[in-house]
Design goal:
8 helices; globular; single chain; mainly alpha; 64% helix
Length: 265
């Protein structure tokens, strides 16, 4: 069980540190963004190469390398969005009075290019790992993609905590596409599904041979999916989730205006 414990500890650290680092870089002056994303792009190229090479390595080390490389690809996509390079054709607040399908269309336009980039990222990861013995990288990306999509839908439909503090000043208009409610009808279903799958992954990881590729790979995926479920609960429970990354948010400049009100529709 030692390898599984190390896998869990590594995933927890990377989840916490990488999120904080991206928030910290995004809080720096916009003139620094091209340098940050440029450095991240170099890492992206290395991550894609690492995904390709580790896909043929069905060992514990191969699983760890694939997991890390997939997170690096995801991190580049997150940075490109938060820094405003890849968002959507609509870069303005939701028009007043927009309701129903119209509001949904406006919200999609606000993040459309980012959604296309995520799909392209998933395709890239799938291509370089297709039919390889080590699929850890592909499953890592798919978990991140599925659970982030669920979180976005829940924020759009309405949750208690909208995590506005994570948005930089140049993306503050996105808050007008959010809705604040105690909960919405969608919320329980992805949480139940993800919790069920995570439980199965934990059982498989625990029952796998200690130190094997399967134990390590399943441990990464189970921990990552469990953290995604936890992040969903942060959306509806009276818990200040941003306290976990206060150090990452410390680079944000004080704002001289109040945030636009979140939609109640």
């Amino acid at each position: 069980m030692t390898d599984l414990a190390l896998t869990v500890a590594y995933t927890l650290f990377v989840w916490w540190f990488a999120t904080g680092a991206i928030l910290w870089l995004d809080g720096l002056p916009p003139r620094t963004y091209r340098y940050s994303l440029g450095a991240a792009s170099v890492l992206l190229l290395g991550a894609v190469q690492l995904l390709s090479s580790s896909a043929g390595d069905p060992s514990p080390v191969g699983a760890a390398l694939a997991f890390t490389a997939s997170l690096a690809v995801w991190g580049w996509l997150e940075m490109s969005f938060l820094m405003g390079f890849i968002t959507g054709p609509r870069r303005s607040p939701c028009p007043a009075g927009a309701r129903g399908l119209q509001r949904a269309r406006y919200a999609l336009e606000a993040v459309l290019h980012h959604e296309i980039a995520l799909a392209a990222g998933a395709l890239l990861v799938a291509v370089v790992t297709w039919e390889a013995p080590n699929s850890t990288g592909l499953w890592t990306f798919l978990i991140l993609w599925a659970m982030r999509t669920s979180a976005k839908l829940n924020v759009f439909l309405g949750v208690r905590n909208l995590s506005e503090s994570f948005l930089p000043d140049h993306l503050r208009y996105l808050q007008t596409y959010f809705a604040r409610r105690p909960m919405n009808l969608l919320f329980p279903w992805p949480v139940i599904a993800a919790t069920t799958i995570a439980t199965l992954l934990w059982r498989l990881a625990i029952n796998a041979d200690d130190g094997s590729h399967d134990a390590v790979s399943l441990g990464f995926l189970a921990t990552l999916l469990s953290l995604a479920v936890l992040e969903h609960w942060f959306l509806v429970l009276p818990i200040p989730a941003d306290a976990l990354w206060r150090w990452g948010l410390s680079s944000r400049r004080p704002l001289d205006r109040s945030p636009p009100p979140a939609s109640s529709s």
